[in-house]
Amino acid sequence: MIAILWRYRVAPDAAEAFEAAYGPAGVWAQLFGQAFGFVRTELLRGGEGTYATLDYWTDWLSFEAFEDAFAEDYGRLDAECEALTLAEEKLGVFEVAE
Asked: Cα 57 to the chain's mean position, in Å?
């Protein structure tokens, strides 16, 4: 299993909407959930408007297949959610040690 880790900085007035969109039942998880190999999303809240997400997939090939099949939907949703974040950074793809 792999986990893709993202870090975000969110304005205080966008925190509620950000949590709704990026949480385990949010629009991102709903989009990912349409693809084979998606396991779950976790949303982590830090201090001063910092957040992180962990998106779990069974393997890298499943995530790549998702990217290919849902590129248009991903781009549209990314554009819609852009206003919720002040900054975002992909920290990496990690193999889950089990």
From this structure: 11
